Amino acid sequence: MTPPLRIIVVEDETLILMQIEMLLEEAGHEVVGTAVTRDEAIALAVETRPDIAFVDLRLKDGSSGLEAARGMRGVAGLTVVFMTANARELPDDLDGAAAVIPKPFSESVFGAALPFLEECLRRPPPGSPPPQGVRLAPWYIERHGLVLPAGGA
User: Each residue's pLDDT tens digit in the chain (153 positions)?
Assistant: First the structure.
């Protein structure tokens, strides 16, 4: 049996945070912690050593999810996926994150994204193109020699 992914969620909107936690846990994954600021996120990543972090761009104290992701990058094996309503504010290369899921997202989009992202983490490259609502970083596509359908990623 494959162990659950160990996940942290960096999100300052309480209802969205609760929704993401619920969806992750229903999918059989372990939420090892949540954070609402850059500093909390970095400390949590160092403490818990998660497999993946879902990170919003705008955080509670005015800090940036980009800054949080940069700070967490030093944690061995940590993959970052941005989840944001401000995807246009991300640099083209997603600043080192593997993917972005634009908000608002539906439970079906998030539900389709989870197994795809798990495959990206555990058995790269994925055997199928990203589901609708998931945009892979150009560096990830290049690293794994992925050929995406027209209009993909």
Answer: 789 999 999 999 999 999 999 999 999 999 999 999 999 999 999 999 999 999 999 999 999 999 999 999 878 678 999 999 988 889 888 988 999 999 988 889 899 999 999 998 888 888 888 888 899 999 888 888 877 766 555
The fold of the 6-143 domain, in CATH, is: Rossmann fold (3.40.50)
The whole model's pTM is what? 0.92
Separation in Å, CA 33 to CA 40, 53, 82, 113, 152: 10, 10, 16, 20, 32
What beta strand segments (E) does 56-127 contain?
A: 79-84, 99-102
CA separation for the pair 7, 93 (Å, rounded): 22
* All structural domains of the chain with their residue ranges: 6-143
Residue of 104, 136, 143, 138 whose CA lies nearest to 15:
104
